[in-house]
Amino acid sequence: MIPTHELSYLDSISQKDILTGWSCGDSNNPNSCGYDGLTLGCTWRTLQWNTEKWDEFIPAIWTLFNYGNKPVEDFYITLQMDWDIPYADYENNAVKYYPEVRGSRIYNLNTDLSGGIIFLNDDPKNMRATSWDDDIWLSGNPMEYEWFWTNIVSSYELSTRIQPDDYLVFCTFGPISLNPGEKYDFVWAFVFGEDEADWLKNAETLQVFGQDPYYLMPPAPPSIELSSQNNKVKIRWTRNRVEVTEGEFDYSSESSIDPIRQEPDWDGYRIYRNMTGIGTIEDGGWHFVTELNSTYIYETWGTIPSDELNPEFWKRTYWAEFTDKGPGLYTGFKYFYSVVAYDISNSKSSPEENAKSIIVSGNNKVPTNSVLVIPNPYKVFNHPAFSEGVIFTNLPPICTIKIYTLNGELVKKIKHENQSGNERWDLNNDNGKKIASGIYLYTIESSQGIQKGKIAIIK
Predict the structure, then answer these.
(1) CA distance readout (Å), 16 to 19, 46, 50, 350
(2) What is the value of pTM for the model shown?
(3) Which residues have CB under 8 Å from 134's CB, separation 6+?
(4) DSSP, res 433
(5) Which of 171, 117, 208 is nearest to 106 (CA)?
């Protein structure tokens, strides 16, 4: 039994992650042990893709952990590979070990069709090839522990056997020791190929997983622009390039080259919003707005010519856009937006990489008596979106805001001259000092007339 906490932190790496596991005993009980007192468990994750160049291997991440209350010392794991390539011609198989990829390949001598196992972050203790005609199978019971240790695990053989036969390969790694609660990631893979060259190419492609099996480089984040009117926010972003400085460009999402695949593998965008600008997608800090996959992007804005995905030939910037109409948008509130790019493995950029903020604008073509102050009353424990003060919203394009004490003393004068319909007051007076708690009066003076109101400040 694998405890649920061993699975709760896992997120998808590939297009299809399969999770399973094993344990020597009940891994929710530190006193439960298996053979020879072992208290070992394993979360087993396999990764699969259905795209060209990525559908000829299946990496596996075995997270081994000690769920007991005592150390587990010097243990080994052995994988058994008994492949018939193909089944109808299994007696014409051969085996070869490749130290450069730490892998054993079984192949057919007539067709060179290949399959095998490679280790990605550990050197094998052995990758021993045996034939069912070998004498060791006559020397005892292979199901007995002592026989298996003596004849298989303790061997240091890295086999190459080219005589046609039906082969069985044992792949062992270790020794490993784990203290109570300690974990260890063992990363290995099934690798297939049409011939030796194809098999080696696929094995070499996977070497990056040995460095960090949980990280796949996401596409570069796009550069975004925000605008707002009529209680809506328009998000516009770059597709093929980002202008770093004037006339200097860098890769954007759709031109990013995946370091493993050596080609672009962008697959879509997800748009998020946030009222504080902090937090992560995983902890719920960012609210999901919409997803625009590659099919929608291509159908709506067209494909980008291959030359415009290559920095050597960049001539123009290609854009996409989306308008957020809510729900959850309120005039005068500040919102942070991010466009997150993801690839075919669902590896995604971080919202913090391109987040920008905007204050939602209303329709400024409204009667003067519709001007509002948000929040009102203002309290120091209001939502962080209002930590910088209050917002006057639905303002005429050109007006003057004046704030007074109840005694008529002018506290602050603000000139508003833009089409946003919003103006923020940071609760400082004209001398730059914070005002005290109390009731304040305000006037909005414009060509449309004068509007008056009150603001309550509670600290």
Answers:
(1) 10, 8, 9, 21
(2) 0.56
(3) none
(4) P
(5) 117
Q: Is the pLDDT of residue 402 over 70?
A: yes
Can the peptide bond before residue 164 be classed as cis, meaning omega within 30 degrees of 0? no
Q: What burial letters (b/e) apply to 31-64, b meaning 16+ CB within 10 Å?
A: eebeeeeebbbbbbbbbebeeeebebbbbbbbbb
Q: Which of 142-146, 340-344, 357-361, 367-371 has the lowest mean pLDDT?
A: 367-371
Give the span between the Cα atoms of 66 and 6, in whole angstroms: 12
Beta strand pairing status for 378-379 and 372-374?
A: unpaired
Taking domain 4-210, whether its CATH number is 1.10.10 is answered by no
Instruction: Give how far the C-alpha of residue 59 lies from the chain's centroid of Cα atoms, to the nearest Å.
Output: 18
Q: Render the burial of 150-171: b for 16+ CB within 10 Å, e for the rest.
A: ebbbebeebbebeebbebbbbb
Is the Cβ–Cβ distance between 231 and 331 less than 8 Å?
yes
Q: Are the CB atoms for 167 and 95 separated by under 8 Å?
A: yes
Secondary structure of residue 290 in the 3-state scheme:
strand
**Alpha carbon separation from 337 to 127, 219, 234, 237, 289 (Å, rounded):** 52, 18, 10, 11, 10
Burial status of residue 252 (CB atoms within 10 A of its CB: 0-12, 13-18, 19 or more):
buried
Q: DSSP labels for 33-72?
A: --GGG--EEEEEEEEE--STTTSSEEEEEEEEEE-SSS-E
Partner residues linked to 398 by β-bridges = 417
- The residue among 222, 259, 284 whose CA lies nearest residue 345 is 259
Other C-beta atoms within 10 Å of 440: how many?
Answer: 22
Q: How confident is the model at residue 3 (pLDDT cuts 50, 70, 90)?
A: very low
**SS3 for 197?**
helix
Between CA 398 and CA 415 the distance in angstroms is 8
Superfamily of domain covering 368-458: Macroglobulin (MG2) domain (2.60.40.1930)
As a whole-number percent, the residues of the chain with pLDDT over 70 amount to 88
Domain positions in the chain are: 4-210, 239-359, 368-458
Distance CA(24)–CA(67), nearest Å, equals: 10
Which of 349, 24, 385, 360 has the alpha carbon at shortest distance from 216?
Answer: 349
Helix (H) or strand (E) holding 300: helix 294-301
